[in-house]
Structure formats: C-alpha cells, structure tokens
C-alpha cells in the first residue's frame, strides 16, 4: 500500500479550500438521507464539497475520479439528568410564552449533543489520515489539507442555512400609519379599566381605535369565540386604521392592529397616541391575553387538534418499509403530508423509486439541484424502511416513557429547497396550503416528465362544462383539464341547525359557557351542490347577440385512476376576511360517480353559434379597447384588485358577471402579469412584440407533453399572448377548431389511429369506471391555511396509519369527517 503522505501529495491539486459562496453539503448525502450520525458517517468531497453516504462514496469516486474525502462521524452524547426531571425520566417541558421556535420562551426544539470525529479518507482503499498523521507531513501538504478541513467544518452547511433553527411569529413591522396618525380632538378619555364594547357590552377582546377613541369588540374567531366584529365594522365605516387591544398595554408596549395592513404592527408613537385619550402607558398593567398568547392557546387547545392527531389515546408506533416519518423543518408539515400520500401511489413509486439506481447513475454533477434525483431520493427514503427506526434513547431508563412513534425519520431539506426555489411562498418557511402545494408539485412533475412516463397522469381528468342559453335552449360545450375536485360546503344543509342556532344565541348573549358546536354537513349535500346547475345571470348569448340567463352544468368527461377531492373549508366572509368553516362531513369509504359522467351533445340539441361578443375589433382590423361591463369592473376594483386585473377578469370571462370574474381573479392572482395591461389575443403585447415573435420553447414543450401537436400549441400561445395558463384554457375551449389541424411532433399520428380514425386532440388522460375507494386523507388544524398543522392518514394493508411528521402510528379513530384533502383510487370491476 502506498505511503499516505505520497497519496496526499498526488491528490493535493484536487483539494480545495471553501470560498464564500461555495455550497458545502456536510450534513446530508446528496443521494440519500445519510448524515454524520448515520452508520458509516458522511464523506464530503474535498473538491466539490458534495456530501456522500457510505454506500455512494465509491460510486462518486468511480464516476469523478476524486480521491480525497473528509469523513465526518457523530455519536450522540448521553443526556444528563436534571434535578427537575419528572418521574418518567424526562424533564418537564416549560409552557411556551412566545409564538416562536428555537427562541427563549418559544416552543422547545431539542438540540442534541454530539461527539464528532473528523479525518481525511483516500479512495479507493479508504486509507485514513488523522490530524496526528498530518502533523508529520511536509508543510505544503499539512497546510493545504488542514485549511481545507477547517474550511469545510467552519462553513455553514447548505442544509443548516435552509433549516429553520429559529422562527419568531412575533416579529412585527412598523405601521405605515404610525408616524402621521390622525387623532380627533373629540374630548374622549378612556378609563384605566372596566372597558365594554360600546355596541354590544362585551367585556372581553376589547379594542380602542387610536383615531377617535371608540371602544369596541374584536373579531369573531372561526370557532365562534372572540368578539362580534364591531371594531372591524367601525374601520370599514370610517377608514380609521389602527386599534390597540385594551388589557394588553404595559410600559413595554401593547397589541396594535392595522386593519389597512391586515396585520399586527408596531407603533413607535404608541405612548403619545395613548396619552391623547388619557391613558398613561407607564402605569398600565396587563389584564388580558395578548394575541400571541391566544394564538399559542389555539395551537394547544383541545378540540380539533386533539381529535385529528388522536391525542387522547396511546397509539402503537409502526416501523418498516413505507412507514417512515418526516421531520418538520418549521412549518413544513403541508409538504410532509402531501409527499407521504403521493408515494403510496404506484405511478410515483415506479417512476422514481423502482428506477433509483438508473436515476442516480444518470444524475448531473450536482445532484442536489436535479429534480428527478431529489424526488427519487425522497421516495426511496420513505419506502425503503432504512430510516424507519426508533429514535435511540440516550437515557438510562429505557422504556420509561410511553411509546410515541418518534422516528429517526428523514429531513427533506434538499427536496424542499429545490421544489420551492423561485416560488414566492414555497421558498419561505411560512405555513402553506397543502392543496396549493400538491398542484405546484404536480406542475413540476409535468414540466420534468415531457418524455417517458408521467405519474401526474394518475390524477389528470377532463371536465365538461355545458352552458345552455335559457332564451333559445341552445348549448355550448367546453372541456378543460383538472387534477382536483373542489367540493363546496353548503352550510344551509347542516343537519344540526337547531344546535348551531342555540349555541350562536348563547354566545351573542355573552354566555362564556356556550359550547362550540360543529356543523354536520351530509356528503350527499356537498355532491348535490357540485352537480346542480349554476345560474349565469349575465351570460352573453351568441344566439340572441345579447346578455341573457343561462345554466352551467359541470360533469366528468373522464375519470382518473386516482381522484383527489378538496373540501372547500376555506372561504371569504362578507368582509372578504379569510375564514375556515368548522364542519364535520360524513365522507364515505366508497364512492360511485358514474352518474356524473358527461354525455356530450344530445340528439337534436342545437349548439350556440361560434360568434365572439360584440365587437372587439373594428372592420379595418384596428385594435380597439374591448367592450367590458363597467359595473363588474368597478365592483372588483372596490375589493382592492388592480384595475387592469379587473378588466382582464371581465374580458376573459366574457362579461358573464361578478361571480365568474371573481373566480377568475382569485385563480390568477399569482400570475406574473396579473396587473399588467390587458392585451387582446393576436395583437402586440408590448414594444417590439409581434404575432410572429418566437414563442417560449418551455411553454410549447409543456403543452406538447399534454398530447397536443406543436402546431396546436403554437396556435394557442399566439392567441393568448404567450401566457401558458391562458393557452391551456384556450386550447380546451377550442378543441373543435383544432380537430381540423394536422397532429404532429409529440401528438398522436395517423399511424397510431385504428381503422383510419384519429382520436380527438387533447391531453393524455386515463379513463375507466367512476367507482372509487378511500385510501388516504389529509387533515388541517388551525384557523387558516397560513397557520396550524397538517396530518396525513393513509390506509396500509387495510390498517389506517397516522403520519404526523416524525410520528408514525397505527390509527385508532381516523377522523375521516374532518379531512381537507381526500384521496380515492379506482376500484377494479
């Protein structure tokens, strides 16, 4: 065996010292979830600074020729027993006093203590070089290797910078109204105690408006507690933006809310603003819980949280393949829940996990930035069982605590960073909507599966919309692709209306002991609301060339292999404040949607003529402003949306009324050109842009991957100013026009047709019977999608299993009535 010193000298030119900006992966393998704590430790390439687990370092060496690696191993230290330990062997947890993670007073995040061993390893023989060995080597070798080792160990690892070590929900910004707040000289003076709402006499949750001194109650919470919204109504009537919560004022500050900015804020002039109404901030004492304390209480309260997490029973921990927990990276439970469900679906398993060796062999030089590699890594981590092991107990009293299902699990740091990169929400550490993330991930799969199998096809289905003009009874048919069924919640169909009304009456009377009653909504009522015809009051009929009334009916043009149903629990109140409906729905284990299959044009039914609304262009083809319903545009503007966005909403919904325009606005708020000026199809979209300008190759490839030809994709993009989302909508509403076009390049060719009959153009969708069985559901706890917690329940071998981040247990009482997203699979007949 060659001398170690000679070996190091031979590879010295490949050993680098990390510079600012270098990505150092010293906490996690790029191809697996191995870490320095794993068996075999972690090998960091001293040239590229990629981390490799013991099972992949030889493969990396063979592929790249790199020989020098820094081998890092960590072993967990035994915890010292504290004097205040509870009888179970665990120290008592302090009650959180701050809405934060990893900060004094916040929710506790245990920090493990480790002993670390670091040495250089030379491949292929894995010869080790310790710090003592380096001391005897030539200066040039010792200095270069020592600097590289020290640089790698001192650098912030990529996973460390991505992981949430601290999160503070109390960080507030200075209000833009604070410096120049207008205060009325109306002689109002506020006593130091005994406050009541001036409208309803409520004595809790009382706020004072800092402009006129009005003392009113706060908002009503989703569960019926809180106030009666009188402070909010006062702002809507007057526009006075800032209010302070009475009872939270101390010499250190108080809770100040800005209705205009819709957030808790700082008021640097609060002492002066309070003194205006006779309140001496320096003498005040706290008598009410702050909003932060209330939020913490909500996050710990018994009720929805306890039921969904099955906290009232001792759950049996499960370990093994397909039963791997995922660490919460700080508000990442939405991602954890969605990915746990997706990797129970055969399409995702076969695409990413079955081919993992091939995927890793074909991975680029930096696999941390490769979508396919990171999805395969996550899928294998969840399904292999390699990480589904109990957290080792460093204490002496093994088995003293009740089993809670805590696992070593996996931390999807690289995956989260990759799928969230560039996204305004998923790149942050804030809580997100699981349904929005599911669609975002499906969209990424679509973009990365333009060739080969596409697992997203498991969810893809076609929706047929039939609009019938009530004046002529002529119909119009359009189709669109979708991945999720959004199920409305008809609150007026609750079966316990009397209980709800009684609880509401007692609450309005100030009865603090009034129980919280959850509305019981039949699933059949939700399905009826989905399938019943919708009345369009401002429909422009091409048959009569005028606005009239129409009905719109929605049906399934195809049934997917796997059906996702979203319960529309999150809605907007009359004041456009987001709220969550606290409902229980008896969602069935089996579902038959056969009665909702689309039938297409009926025998003898006449179609509405294909005529555009009047006139968008003059006879000389000069582009004029579109004819828009000014009243609808005005209503949208009054809700706070940009003028150009409102004009586009009315235009793209064909002047069909406020409801359709509002729906378009809500679904396009994230478009990059949401507030850009309205550009008519086929006309210039800006300086230097012409209809013949080259279109986005990425947009073309995305549409072609859905089964359309390049010519059809080109036509759709040209008609919609090269905007992908609109092009997809356009192409599904013009399928009849596209049938006459030649199918080419990526679409179906004539040779693929049977009997000389070409299939109609459209996306590749699977179809079959509309009978399904429930196999998973994701539940949400909290007041809105932007806060709270997500948990997944998945049926494994006829046993319901709860996946609550790192806890994986056999479910005793799966709360199927409280779900948010439900996943069904087709039942083979």
In short:
The protein has 829 residues and is an alpha+beta fold. 26% of the residues lie in helices and 18% in strands.
Overview features:
829 residues, Herpes Virus-1, Helicase, Ruva Protein, domain 3, six-stranded mixed β-sheet, 24 helices, 26% helix
Describe this structure in words.
With 829 residues, the protein is an alpha+beta fold. Helices cover 26% and strands 18% of the residues. Among the domains are: 2-77 and 112-154, Zinc/RING finger domain, C3HC4 (zinc finger) (Herpes Virus-1, 2-Layer Sandwich); 172-300, Zinc/RING finger domain, C3HC4 (zinc finger) (Herpes Virus-1), CATH 3.30.40.10; 628-666, Ubiquitin-associated (UBA) domain (Helicase, Ruva Protein, domain 3). Strands 16, 20, 24, 25, 26, 27, 28 and 29 form an eight-stranded mixed β-sheet that branches. A hairpin with a 4-residue loop joins strand 18 (534-541) and strand 19 (546-556). Helix 18 (630-638) packs across helix 19 (643-652), helix 21 (697-704) crosses helix 22 and helix 22 (710-719) crosses helix 23. Residues 81-92, 98-103, 162-170, 298-303, 396-404, 615-625, 681-693 and 739-761 have low confidence and may be disordered. Residues 75-98, 494-516, 743-766 are annotated as: Disordered.
């Amino acid at each position: 065996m060659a001398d170690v010193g000679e070996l190091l000298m031979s590879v010295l030119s490949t050993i680098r010292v990390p510079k600012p900006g270098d990505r150092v992966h010293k906490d996690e393998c790029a191809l697996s979830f191995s870490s320095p704590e794993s068996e075999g430790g972690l090998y960091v390439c001293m040239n590229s600074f990629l981390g490799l687990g013991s099972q992949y370092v030889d493969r990396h060496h063979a592929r790249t020729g790199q020989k020098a690696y820094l081998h890092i191993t960590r072993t967990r230290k035994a915890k010292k027993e504290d004097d205040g330990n509870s009888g179970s062997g665990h120290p008592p947890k302090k009650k959180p006093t701050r809405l934060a993670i990893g900060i004094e007073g916040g929710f506790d995040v245990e920090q493990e203590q480790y002993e670390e061993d670091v040495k250089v390893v030379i491949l292929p023989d894995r010869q080790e070089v310790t710090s003592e060995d380096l001391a005897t080597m030539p200066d040039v070798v010792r200095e270069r290797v020592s600097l590289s080792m020290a640089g790698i160990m001192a650098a912030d690892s990529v996973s460390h910078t991505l992981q949430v070590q601290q999160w503070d929900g109390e960080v507030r910004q200075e209000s833009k109204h604070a410096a120049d707040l207008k205060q009325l000289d109306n002689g109002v003076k506020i006593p130091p105690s005994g406050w009541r709402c001036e409208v309803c006499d409520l004595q809790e949750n009382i706020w004072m408006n800092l402009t006129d001194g009005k003392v009113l109650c706060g908002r009503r919470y989703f569960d019926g507690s809180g106030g009666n919204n009188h402070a909010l109504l006062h702002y809507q009537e007057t526009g006075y933006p800032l209010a302070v919560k009475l009872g939270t004022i101390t010499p250190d500050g108080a809770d100040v809310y800005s209705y205009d900015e819709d957030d808790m804020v700082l008021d640097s002039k609060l002492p002066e603003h309070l003194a205006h109404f006779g309140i001496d901030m320096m003498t005040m004492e706290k008598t009410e819980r702050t909003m932060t304390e209330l939020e913490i209480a909500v996050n710990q309260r018994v009720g929805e949280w306890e039921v969904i997490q099955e906290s009232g029973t001792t759950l049996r921990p499960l370990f093994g393949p397909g039963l791997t927990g995922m660490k919460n990276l700080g508000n990442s439970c939405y991602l954890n829940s969605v990915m746990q469900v997706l990797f129970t679906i055969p399409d995702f398993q076969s695409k990413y996990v079955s081919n993992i060796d091939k995927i890793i062999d074909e991975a680029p030089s930096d696999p941390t930035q490769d979508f396919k590699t990171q999805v395969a890594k996550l899928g294998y981590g969840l399904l292999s069982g390699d990480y589904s092991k109990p957290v080792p107990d460093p204490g002496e009293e093994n088995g003293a605590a009740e089993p809670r299902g805590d696992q070593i699990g996996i931390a999807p740091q690289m995956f989260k960073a990759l799928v969230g990169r560039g996204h305004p929400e998923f790149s942050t550490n804030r809580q997100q909507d699981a349904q929005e993330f599911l669609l975002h991930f499906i969209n990424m799969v679509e973009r990365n599966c333009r060739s080969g199998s596409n697992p997203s096809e498991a969810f893809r289905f076609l929706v047929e919309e039939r609009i019938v003009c009530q004046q002529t009874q002529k119909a119009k048919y359009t189709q669109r692709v979708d991945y999720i069924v959004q199920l409305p919640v008809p609150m007026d169909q609750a079966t316990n209306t009397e209980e709800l009304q009684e609880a509401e009456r007692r609450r309005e009377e100030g009865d603090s002991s009034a129980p919280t009653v959850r509305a019981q909504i039949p699933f059949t009522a939700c399905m009826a609301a989905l399938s019943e015809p919708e009345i369009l009051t401002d429909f422009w009929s091409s048959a009569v060339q005028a606005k009239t009334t129409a009905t719109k009916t929605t049906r399934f043009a195809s049934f997917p292999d796997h059906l996702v149903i979203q319960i529309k629990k999150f809605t907007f109140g009359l004041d456009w404040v987001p709220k969550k409906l606290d409902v229980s729905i008896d969602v069935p284990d089996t579902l038959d949607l056969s009665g909702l299959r689309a039938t297409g044009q009926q025998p003898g039914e006449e179609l509405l003529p294909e005529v555009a609304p009047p006139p968008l262009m003059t006879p000389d083809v000069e582009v004029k402003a579109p004819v828009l319903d000014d009243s609808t545009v005005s209503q949208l503007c009054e809700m706070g949306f940009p003028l150009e966005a409102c004009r586009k909403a009315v235009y793209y919904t064909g002047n069909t009324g406020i409801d359709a325009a509002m729906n378009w606005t809500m679904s396009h708020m994230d478009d990059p050109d949401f507030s850009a000026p309205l550009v008519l199809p086929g006309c210039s979209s800006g300086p230097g842009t012409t209809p013949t300008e080259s279109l986005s190759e990425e947009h073309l490839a995305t549409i072609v991957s859905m089964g359309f030809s390049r010519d059809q994709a080109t036509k759709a993009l040209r008609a919609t100013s090269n905007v992908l989302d609109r092009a997809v909508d356009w192409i599904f509403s013009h399928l009849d026009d596209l049938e006459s076009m030649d199918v080419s390049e990526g679409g179906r060719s004539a040779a693929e047709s049977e009997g000389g009959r070409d299939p109609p153009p459209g996306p590749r969708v699977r179809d079959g019977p509309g009978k399904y069985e429930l196999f998973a559901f994701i539940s949400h706890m909290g007041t809105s999608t932007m806060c709270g917690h997500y948990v997944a329940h998945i049926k494994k071998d006829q046993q319901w299993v709860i996946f609550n981040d790192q806890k994986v247990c056999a479910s005793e009482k799966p709360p199927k009535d409280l779900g948010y997203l439900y996943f069904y699979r087709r039942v083979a007949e």
